[in-house]
Amino acid sequence: MKKYALLTFAAAFGFLSIAVPLMNRPAQAQDNTTKDFVPPTVFQAAGPNAASIQSTVDAYRAALGNPNNGNAGSLGSGHREINWDGLGGADTSTTPPVNPFNTFLNTRGSQFTTPGIGLSQAPASGGAQGGLAVLFNNPTYATIFKPFSNQRMFTPVGSNITDALFFLPGSGGNTPATVSGFGAVFTDVDQPDGNRSGKRGDKASTLIEYFDQDGKQLFRSFVPASTGNGNLSFFGIAFDDARIASVHIRAGNVAPGPNDDERHDVVMMDDFIYGEPQPLQ
Questions:
Q1: Which of 150, 163, 202, 214 is the most exposed place for a label (fewest CB within 10 A)?
Q2: Residue ranges covered by each domain of the chain
Q3: Which segments within 28-69 are labelled E, that is strand?
Q4: 237 neighbors 210 (Cβ within 8 angstroms)
Q5: Rounded CA separation 281/264 (Å)
Q6: Given CA atoms 220, 236, 90, 48 in this order, what sign does their dihedral have?
Q7: Are 226 and 232 contacting, i.e. CB atoms less than 8 angstroms apart?
Q8: What is the pTM of this model?
Q9: Omega within 30 of 0 (cis) for the link into 100
Q10: CA-CA distance, 39 to 41, in Å (whole number)?
Q11: Considering only CA atoms, which of 221, 257, 271, 263 is closest in space to residue 104?
């Protein structure tokens, strides 16, 4: 049976979905709907390599608004990206786990935390510190994870949970902000949403949840899977206005460390893409 991933566009009376053939069945988006809730536009794709999700990632960038503002001060439009690669993509170092992860707090208005030990940037293997294979003392990680852009990926250590908060770029984390959307690339999501029992989410490994400034859930979805070592997945949403204050990510069904197998879906993250942070109103 041919399987599909959906590129879903919010319409006035529900969702208009365009199905494009991919290797695995899509995640089923869920929202916490209220009377005045306007559903976001949903972008998702999964496949064997970067090319298989590139058009969806590019469409998402355009939906948030171009250009990529990089390390510029606070702006009224555009978006921000983090690809973890450093030195123009030439950095192969493995950074020690830190918590909170504030590397991009002032320059790009984002802070990341985990209930685990900390968060790290690392290539699959290589570099002076040996990459993911050495960070997690598992040599299989040198070959089963492949990046979307250049070499380094992003991961929590001691947990599979990452939380994101947003601040006005240039404020040093002193001015809380919201964004119109947040999307992420994942590598090696093997377990899809649902199984033969037909229950949604009972085997899905990777989940994103979005919250407003009051902590109310705006939207949640499982990330589409693409079975096979190093395959890539993308999931992102875009609202018409900046209403997302925080994002909760569960990458895989277990903290990195064990072998990736039928019971353990170990997942790494790559590029983060989000709307230009706007000060809370």
A1: 214
A2: 3-30+39-279
A3: 41-47
A4: yes
A5: 42
A6: positive
A7: yes
A8: 0.87
A9: yes
A10: 7
A11: 271
